[in-house]
Specification:
Helix content: 40-55%
Bound molecules: 3-methyl-2-oxobutanoic acid, zinc ion
Number of domains: 4
CATH superfamily of the largest domain: Aldolase class I
Strand content: 15-25%
Radius of gyration: 24 Å
CATH class of the largest domain: Alpha Beta
Structural class: alpha/beta
Shape: globular
Distance between the termini: 47 Å
Number of helices: 17
């Protein structure tokens, strides 16, 4: 039932296609391992997305394995793998998703002249042939096939319509027309769909989809325009991550449909109370911080600074709030454990939050919980979430922090010593006298690993409010020509920073090794 309690019209349901793990993972510096991708995919299922684009299986064995694991484990949404039009791409996508209860192959090729001539260095006719062959191959393997004419918004409409007709003739079930470079404007995108519906009447019988990038800050507005023109699937990503300026933010799309449903008449199946948690998980695992004033999930999204506003909200919340923070899962911190809570209470709390931990993972979580409870009066759901997510990162292969010590006084520059477990086995120590305690630890890590890494971003935050809050550090480093992002959580900010630095180094190292194997540098398109 809708908010007005009248039955909702099914034809106005907007499908939410989440591409956090594919387009989102293409953001510079992001490199998620299989365990982290699975964790995000399970959370996306709890959030109620309709489709999870889990990755681009041909691009690396790691991506293939992650998509396959998600297809095998995650229940609920359709699990989709991306493929170019080549036979091998489509086979890889199918092999990765085929174990899902509801698999989908998403194949794409560019239809704009600039992409056809300059990037693909081929002809319009050849592209048509590739689409025919790819969609027909995909359709033989899978009932659910999506086709995207890449750079659709800059393509010649008549030509793109012919290509779409071919995809439909071969059995495509979803047609997605992307604004790949974030160039279009709402009225243009809407007009493009109007014209496509006119030129290709068969579009009325399949799902039409939008996929917008945010280069001009219009991704959500353009997506809405597409939906108003008749599209019923929106491709988007948590926190708006994605290539360059990113994709349309899932949370903005979901809350736009939720808040303005009476006017739009459109709705989605998103469980909005899971939004904040999903946003935090993605931010932690990707190392991409959410800007404070970000709509819906920024820490100021529901904060009121001006006295007049605070006064108004105290008298009547809706004077200045169009949404209730609890609707997006903010300010819901009902789980509280304390110093005397045992393993069982922790396990129950984690289960209630959707984390299935047992054996060694539960032991480690319990040890970290006890350390925290010794220092913090009340351990909340947000603290537990931060600790458990932090533990997941231990599975990133590469370096690991064994211990550190810092001598810091106001009389001498601080001196740090560290011990690092090495990826090839064994450990190495390093020491350094730095400008501050954190700088000394970072430089000592460089000495121990013999990597001249450069710190390019460093952010400190607190998981919850209060003096005893857990600290959370986010770092981006550059090493061997590649960037890596890492985060660390601890009650000791130097410990959190050291963990984050070592993880960021491991990510940069893994990316440089993968890049070397393919003969790439990060600058390679
Ligand atoms: O932006 C884009 O065009 C894409 C396609 C693969 C859909 O990401
Ligand atoms: Zn894209």
């Amino acid at each position: 039932m809708s908010k007005t309690d009248t039955p909702r019209d099914k034809s106005n349901r907007v499908l939410i296609f989440d591409t956090t793990l594919r387009d989102g993972e293409q953001s510079p510096g992001i490199s998620l391992n299989k365990q982290e991708k699975l964790e995000i995919a399970h959370q996306l299922a709890r959030l109620g997305v309709d489709v999870i684009e889990a990755g681009f299986p041909i691009t690396s064995p790691g991506d293939f394995e992650s998509v396959q694991a998600i297809a095998r484990e995650v229940e609920g949404p359709v699990i989709c793998g991306l493929a170019r039009t080549s036979k091998q791409d489509i086979e890889a996508a199918w092999n990765a998703v085929s174990d899902a209860a509801r698999p989908r192959i998403h194949t794409f090729i560019a239809t704009s002249d600039i992409h056809i001539e300059r990037k693909l260095q081929t002809t319009r006719d050849d592209v048509k042939g590739q689409v025919r062959a790819a969609v027909s191959q995909a359709r033989e393997l899978c009932e659910d096939v999506e086709f995207s004419p890449e750079d659709g918004s800059r393509s010649d409409i008549a030509y793109m319509a012919e290509v779409i007709q071919i995809a439909l003739d071969e059995g495509a079930t979803t047609i997605n027309v992307p604004d790949t470079v974030g160039y279009t404007m709402p009225r243009e995108y809407m007009a493009m769909f109007d014209e496509l519906y006119r030129l290709v009447p068969g579009l009325h019988d399949v799902v039409v989809s939008v996929h917008c990038h945010d280069d001009l800050g219009l991704a959500v507005a353009n997506s809405l325009a597409g939906v108003e023109a008749g599209a019923r699937q929106v491709e988007c990503a948590i926190n708006g991550i994605g290539e360059r300026a990113g994709n349309a933010s899932l949370e903005e799309i979901a809350m736009l449909l939720h808040t303005r449903e009476p006017s739009l008449g459109l709705w989605s199946g998103i469980e909005t109370t899971e939004i904040a948690r999903t946003s935090r998980l993605v931010s932690r695992l990707t190392g991409y911080q959410v800007q404070p004033n970000k709509a819906i999930v920024g820490r100021n999204a529901f904060a009121h600074e001006a006295g007049i506003h605070q006064d108004g909200v105290l008298k009547e919340r809706t004077t200045y709030e169009i949404m209730d923070a609890t609707t997006v899962g903010l300010r819901s911190n009902s789980i509280v454990l304390g110093k005397h809570s045992g393993r069982h209470a922790l396990s129950n709390a984690l289960q209630e939050m959707g984390f299935e931990l047992d054996g060694q993972a539960l032991n480690t979580a319990f040890k970290r919980f006890k350390d925290l409870a010794d220092r913090k009066k009340q351990v909340t759901a947000m603290d537990l979430e931060a600790l458990v997510t932090d533990e997941l990162r231990e599975e990133i292969p590469g370096y690991a922090l064994e211990w550190f010590e810092v001598d810091a006084t106001s009389l001498r520059p601080p001196h740090a010593r560290v011990s690092i477990a090495l990826p090839e086995g064994g450990s190495a120590t390093g020491s350094f006298t730095g400008d501050g305690p954190i700088d000394a630890v970072f430089q000592a890590i460089n000495v121990a690993t013999s990597i001249a890494a450069k710190l390019s971003e460093f952010t400190i935050g607190a998981v919850t409010e209060g003096q005893d809050a857990l600290g959370e550090v986010s770092i981006v480093v550059e090493a061997h020509g590649f960037t890596g992002a890492g985060q660390g959580v601890s009650t000791d900010i130097i410990d959190a920073a050291a963990r984050a630095y070592v993880r960021a180094l491991s990510v940069a190292l893994a990316r440089s090794q993968a890049g070397e194997a393919l003969g790439l540098s990060e600058a390679t398109p």
